[in-house]
Amino acid sequence: MIVRMMKYDIVLFAPERDRFIESLRETGMVDITTSGWEPTESDRTLLLEIEARTKALVQLDSVAEQTSTTTVDAQNAFDSYKEAQSVITAAKSDIARLEKSLDEWREWGDIDIAHLAALAEAGVVLRFFVTPTSTYAKGVEEWSENYNISLVSQVDNQARFVVIGNGSEEINIDAQELKAPTMNLTQLTAAIAAATERIESAQQTIVACAAHRSVIAAELSQMKLQLQNIRISSTAQSEAEGHLLVLEGWAEEANADKVDALLEASPNTVYLKSNPTPEDNTPVKLKNNRFARIFELVGNMYALPKYGTIDLTPFFAPFYMLFFAICLCDAGYGSVILAAGIALLLKGGVKMRQAALFSTVCGVASVAFGFAANSFFGMTISDAPLFEDWKFLDFQNQFFYASLGIGIFQILFGMAINIVMTTITYGFKNALGSLGWFLLIFSSCAAGVAGMVGAEWYSFSSVAYMATIGVALVLMLLLNKPSFNIFANFGVGLWDTYNNITGLLSDLLSYIRLFAIGLSGGVLALVFNSLAMGLTGLDAGIEQFTVGTVFQIIGASAILLIGHGINLFMSTISSFVHPMRLTFVEFFKNAGFEMGTRAFEPLKNE
């Protein structure tokens, strides 16, 4: 759910600004509006410094457990880190250039650079050429009539040769001329080794800097506070010739009494407290139960809900978990996701806890659904003697229509949420159009089910169904816009009918991909199993265990590991992305989701 907020319009004596802001940070309960801030050149420099230190801390955390033979000054740790990074960047660039030169001149042999220079001083210049061997064979006789040519090597279908002259003649042959080398192979190898040593030394410096992460983190915190002060100062409204500042603040309604006490105790400060209005850019904070909180990670990838609407996280969370399991559709793959989630939960720390719980929950759902779908790493679970009498879901033959049913249910569920929220926010009459569409779809589905079970009282030809459709059409075409007259309502209703029919059809077809993705992953798993057994001959069984059998098993294991690894990677991505699409596009649209632009970020000391 969305936490209720209170709005504070605060007026304070300008010289009291820093003290007042610091008191807010100590409480950590008030968000100050800084919308519309435009950074200056110095502000951009500060932003770059913050970004650089943030990235530095990420890298230093990754090497924190390593030991270093180098020491650095704690107060200059970030400067040492930056310098080491510059050395590494330059050395890597040098290595790339030197290795390219080494590859280019390796087949020429270890040329004596000093001897080349001595020949050039004496007026004898060697010019280096390379061309395909076939081209060299065709043209060398003709070229030799005009130039002194000496073949050096013919390797990799390339002929390498030199033309000996005084350096001023124009050479016109079908070959690419190379710039004369400035280093021989020995020198190039030594230069690469020296650059590698510089990288290793710089990496030791970085590891040494990791011991002083707290110093860099403290610098980062101070810079963030500085930036925060700049934003507040730049966006605060100045009044009474600069003597007063007007700030807009926000606090959770549950903390309003504490904030009131703080503001009342603050000298030279007055405030007005009010409830947010629809016109306000109210910051949003979510508060959900333990299960739904896990899926805030998914919702935040799209947007926070607008304040005053509804948080859809608790409503889409079970669907997302189910959709992930359907797309993965294998108990073996689900167990891998589950194991990864548990490992991340144990070793990932606080920062990775939400991602770890998300992987764990989706892994559990995937194991359960994969087992129900009779698949374990592409193998049929019912083939095992323990499960041969169990009844499993025939995913391939039964789940196509089930996926459509799930889609219809989620679309109707989203429309129901939209009707309720519209009624609460704008009144029931503004929800009549949506209610008409809900009745049309729901009654048609109910009539279809009634026909299959023989309940003729609500079949498509029954009076009850016709009456429901009549009510739905009236709501859709004549009462969808209460502020319009009947003719305008009818025109808008017809236009909405076209858009909704095409949109709902597209939405419904999107749910078929649940079946398609799950089926494709299962087929690929089965193919890799067949390849592993067929290519190694293990599909015929093992009559006698020999040394050859060991190699068969090793070969089959390699195929299975690589094949299932690729399939698991692709299936996991699909299982993560497609449910997200169904949530953001189909469900959010039908549920009337409105996005917010601002998260609740109270001032606080880090």
Explain what the structure shows:
The chain is α+β, with helices and mostly antiparallel strands and 606 residues long. It folds into four domains: 5-63 and 214-274, Alpha-Beta Plaits (2-Layer Sandwich); 112-180, no CATH class; 290-398 and 512-590, no CATH class; 427-495. The protein is built from 19 helices and eleven strands. Strands 1, 2, 7, 8 and 9 form a five-stranded antiparallel beta sheet that branches. Strands 4-5-3-6 form a four-stranded antiparallel beta sheet. It has a two-stranded antiparallel sheet with strand order 10-11. The two termini are 27 Å apart. The mean pLDDT is 85.
Helix and strand topology:
Elements: E1 5-13, H1 17-27, E2 30-32, H2 41-62, H3 77-105, H4 113-121, E3 125-132, H5 133-144, E4 148-155, E5 158-165, E6 176-178, H6 185-210, H7 213-235, E7 237-239, E8 244-252, H8 256-265, E9 269-274, H9 290-294, H10 296-299, H11 313-328, H12 331-347, H13 353-372, E10 375-376, E11 379-380, H14 395-426, H15 432-453, H16 463-478, H17 486-510, H18 512-536, H19 547-590
Antiparallel strand pairs: 1-8, 1-9, 2-8, 3-5, 3-6, 4-5, 7-8, 10-11
Briefly, what is this?
The protein is of the alpha+beta class and 606 residues long. The chain contains 19 helices and 11 strands.
